[in-house]
Design goal:
single chain; Rossmann fold; six-stranded antiparallel β-sheet; globular
């Protein structure tokens, strides 16, 4: 089994397609290996090598995919969101101790200003649209000094990402070459990927989901990856028709946006012939899973992942009759257990507790944060376990269901409310398109239940109607006391809904005070 990013692509057929994009020729595996060698030589010439940290700020697309894969074979990659402002770039570049930054030729935005203020070596990436997708040249503006020209080992860091940091300073998550290789193999196994498969990537490539599930797992399998410029619900069905993928992976809000336009694209859907769809990075509401399977005539594979696990931890098995709506599936790579939320003790799977994981895809620990590591890792039954911060339980058949993030569980005067449960109930109403349930500060109870709702086109439901529907299906203490009707739910950069801080985003905290 591969232990490094280089080994992921080392043995696939020379002329097999690896990376594609709209209106571009395919880059073969032989071409990708040649690009890896050219990237290595260019980085070494710029004074960048093994162990050096290279920030990458590029738009979504084939060059971003191949930049990640090829730079990771020489140095440590640190992809950053192209939408950050200068202050954010300055923070992340400093926090990462980056030595260089890769920017597109001609780019003159805030990442460049931050790089110059941080005295980083700027390396420009240029490509010719007439060349195969993912082919590029690197040109440094100055030199970063000397470089270690040895090839990275399995224990070297391949990828550095930050946690989302919704309530505190983001934590640095280093992921080893062996972590990336192990997770890519786990996903390939779960999805039974072969060289015949083609993934259409709509996920951002500065996020673990797209980098590992779409790109790395496809390449590990010798399959092909077709890189869109990013998710666009208006363009999705045209891309689907052109790409002819066997699968795609997305977050639930993307799937919901796709469903909202499915009716007018029935002919394309009928000819799509998807082998499966995948959903991850947030819980997929059961009604959405059912509608996706009905619409596309293909199984919807829900996965469970996080940055610290190099993405995947659990996955629903392939097939129509092996899916459990509302479950994130069975362990799919690492060991997955339930632990006591405050003691370092593993408990019976049927009991609700904190989900913990152990395995070769798990980060060795947060960088420069001994307090977080002390809280997040513990030893038990001869293994080192990582606390995910998720609450859940296994059923008798070994499927894991999550009841929510421990920090997101709503504590209403001592009564604990799972926001996922309330979401699922509200989404059962035909006129509710999207919903996010969250905690609203309350002067007496501590927290109250609130929900932000997007209605279907033409719906005239009122806040009272929504509360009445919830009251008919939920215990009184779980019914949202505050309902906010919105045209669109606020989302993070990766398309995920972030419950923590939702009350502040919607300006409700001042009203509750």
């Amino acid at each position: 089994m591969a232990q490094t990013v280089s080994e992921l692509i080392a043995t696939h057929a020379e002329d097999a397609p690896a990376i594609g994009a709209p209106e571009r020729d395919w880059l073969s595996y032989g071409g990708l290996r040649a690009q890896s060698a050219a990237t290595r030589d260019a980085l070494h010439a710029a004074g960048v090598g093994r162990g050096d940290r290279v920030a990458i700020v590029l738009p979504n697309g084939p060059e971003m995919a191949s930049a990640f894969v090829t730079i990771a074979q020489t140095a440590t990659t640190a992809p950053l969101n192209p939408g950050y402002r200068q202050e954010e770039y300055e923070f992340y570049l400093s926090d990462l101790s980056a030595k260089a930054i890769v920017l597109a030729e001609g780019y003159d935005g805030p990442a460049l200003a931050a790089a110059r203020s941080s005295n980083l070596t700027v390396i420009r990436l240029a490509f010719d649209a007439a060349e195969p997708a993912g082919t590029f040249t690197l040109t440094p503006e100055g030199s970063a000094g000397t470089a270690d020209t040895a090839a990275p080992t399995p224990d070297d860091v391949a990828l550095i990402l930050h946690t989302s940091g919704t309530t505190s300073r983001p934590k640095i998550v280093p992921l080893l070459q062996s972590n990336v290789a192990a997770s890519a193999a786990n996903i390939r196994t779960s999805l039974e990927l072969t060289p015949a498969d083609r993934c259409m990537n709509v996920m951002p490539l500065f996020h673990i989901h797209g980098l590992i599930a779409a790109v790395s797992a496809s390449l590990e399998a010798g399959a092909s990856i077709w890189c869109t410029p990013g998710f666009n619900a208006l363009a999705f069905f045209g891309q689907l028709e052109t790409c002819k993928p066997s699968w795609y992976t997305a977050v639930p809000t993307m799937h919901q946006a796709i469903l909202s336009r499915a009716g007018r694209n029935a002919e394309i859907i009928a000819g799509a012939n998807l082998r499966f769809l995948r959903s991850s990075s947030a819980s997929l509401p059961p009604p959405v899973m059912a509608e996706l399977q009905k619409t596309f005539g293909a199984p919807v594979i829900e996965g469970y992942g996080m940055t610290e696990a190099t993405h995947q931890m659990c996955s629903n098995p392939l097939g129509f009759d092996t899916q459990k709506a509302g479950s994130v599936g069975v362990p799919a790579g690492p060991l997955v257990r339930i632990a006591h939320e405050s003691d370092d003790v593993l408990i019976d799977n049927g009991t609700i507790g904190e989900v913990v994981i152990s395995g070769p895809n798990v980060t060795p620990g947060y960088e420069g944060n001994p307090d977080a590591n002390a809280k997040s890792f513990f030893e038990a039954e001869g293994a080192r376990w990582f606390r995910t911060g998720d609450q859940g339980a296994f059923d008798a058949e070994g499927y894991l269901s999550l009841t929510g993030r421990l920090k997101e569980i709503i504590n209403r005067g001592g009564e604990k409310v799972s926001p996922l449960e309330v979401d699922a109930i509200l989404l059962d109403h035909a006129e509710i398109a999207q919903v996010v349930t969250f905690a609203l500060p309350h002067p007496k109870l501590g927290e109250e239940v609130a929900a932000a709702v997007v209605l279907t086109d033409g719906s005239e439901m009122t806040e009272r109607d929504i509360r009445d529907f919830a009251a008919s299906r939920l215990a009184d203490f779980k019914v949202p006391r505050k309902v906010v009707l919105l045209e669109e739910l606020p989302k993070g950069a990766t398309g995920k809904i972030q419950r923590i801080g939702m009350a502040e985003k919607l300006g409700l905290v001042e009203q509750a005070a």
